[in-house]
Specification:
Radius of gyration: 35 Å
Largest sheet: 7 strands, mixed
Catalytic activity: Mg(2+)(in) = Mg(2+)(out)
Helix content: 55-70%
Main location: membrane
Oligomer: single chain
CATH class of the largest domain: Alpha Beta
Protein name: Magnesium transporter CorA
Number of helices: 10
Function: Mediates influx of magnesium ions. Alternates between open and closed states. Activated by low cytoplasmic Mg(2+) levels. Inactive when cytoplasmic Mg(2+) levels are high.
Organism: Kerstersia gyiorum
Structural class: alpha+beta
Distance between the termini: 68 Å
CATH superfamily of the largest domain: CorA soluble domain-like
Length: 376
């Protein structure tokens, strides 16, 4: 298996990367087997052999099918010997992201950035099989999350502080290691929030332009679909992780103070990851509400604009109605129409018509029938 990486983790002591899985479980610490999805599918029997040798049992065929399925949502399943957690993370498109970054620097059109954000919300599953002293993770290739955490794990083993004045410790158990990796996946969703917010703010500004027609409804619909998909993904993640935390109650009661402390750390870290997922879901729902509100305001603006136009046209029509009436009366085919043959009848009639027109215009202006409700 080309992409299989094996780590022997001794909490509080060291992390050693092995060339191949050992023949038996380690006497101290635990093992982490990280393999790609393609290798897991191609070398399923070899992985089953490793699990039997190091975890004491083979993975059920249904769970193997779940780990091989790239369309499976985040979920949890468990047996009396191991737990299976499938957790979806962001699918990173490095080439497209680099291209979008270059367009931002060059001031290129926004459409490429819109596509980049939309593609950035596509997700892929990462599977975890949790034994007592073994963690098997199945990830797509390449997996930047696994590589990032492996670098962090090795830096922790060397004693390098992550922040000034603080020195993080190595994960004490396979369960804590799994929670740390899932936490790193959720951080990717947290980072995505600012890109989604920027994109929705762009659409809101476009929708709020009263004198320009909005013609990008297809892109706005895609953005809302992305938010809806992200909300569902967060809900699946939250349910899967909450279900796994519920299974902690079925674990044997810790007999020592150190074991109880380790259990409490798992609960605290699990609640922290759940809180991060909830923050993402809350932000997504708020963006959905903002987008819906912006669309409603856009139609309200357009409705007010239409009302202003109709009011102005109605006022102009009202001005010309008496003028048309006068013109119609004097246009009748009668010989004895008053003023029809007078020397100054035309000018007197035109004067009366102008007085009526200016009088009505003055009245409509005073009543604000010709003013716009928009602030120019």
């Amino acid at each position: 298996m080309k992409s299989l990486r094996v780590f022997h983790i001794r909490p509080g002591k060291s992390v050693e990367e092995l060339a191949m899985p050992p023949d038996e479980p380690p006497r101290e610490g635990y093992l982490w087997l990280a393999c790609s999805h393609d290798d897991f599918v191609a070398e399923t029997e070899s992985v089953q052999t490793f699990c039997l040798r190091l975890g004491g049992i083979r993975i059920l065929d249904l769970h193997v099918s779940d780990l091989s399925n790239l369309q499976l949502p985040s979920h949890l399943d468990y047996t009396s010997d191991y737990d299976v957690l499938v957790f979806r993370r962001l699918a990173l498109h490095d080439g497209l992201q680099n291209e979008a970054a270059s367009t931002r620097e060059q001031g290129a059109p926004r459409r490429l950035k819109e596509v980049a954000v939309a593609l950035g919300v596509e997700t892929v599953p990462v599977g975890f099989v949790l034994f007592d002293r073994l963690l098997l993770s199945v990830h797509p290739e390449p997996c930047v999350v696994h590589e990032a955490y492996i670098r962090r794990l090795l830096s922790l083993a060397r004693g390098e502080p992550r922040q000034p004045g603080s020195l993080a410790r190595l994960p004490a158990s396979p369960a804590e290691l799994m929670l740390r990796v899932t936490s790193l996946m959720v951080d990717g969703f947290l980072d995505l929030r600012k890109h989604l917010t920027r994109q929705l703010e762009h659409w809101q500004q476009r929708l709020m332009r009263p004198r320009k027609n909005f013609d990008r409804w297809d892109a706005l619909l895609r953005s809302r679909q992305v938010l809806h998909y992200l909300d569902e993904c967060c809900e699946d993640q939250s349910n899967a992780l909450a279900s796994w935390m519920d299974t902690l109650d079925d674990w044997p009661v810790p007999g020592t103070k150190e074991s109880r402390h380790e259990r409490e750390q798992l609960l605290v870290r699990g609640r922290d990851v759940l809180e991060h997922i909830e923050r993402v879901a809350h932000h997504v729902r708020r963006l959905e509400q903002s987008a819906e509100t912006a669309v409603q305001i856009h139609f309200s603006i357009q409705s007010n604009r239409t009302n202003d136009v109709m009011r102005a046209l109605t006022a102009v029509t009202a001005v010309f109605l008496p003028l048309n009436l006068i013109a119609g009366i004097f246009g009748m085919n009668f010989d004895s129409v008053p003023w029809l043959h007078g020397a100054h009848s035309f000018w007197i009639t035109m004067g009366i018509m102008l007085l009526i027109a200016f009088g009505l215009l003055g009245y409509f202006v005073r009543k604000n029938y010709l003013s716009s409700t928009e602030d120019d």
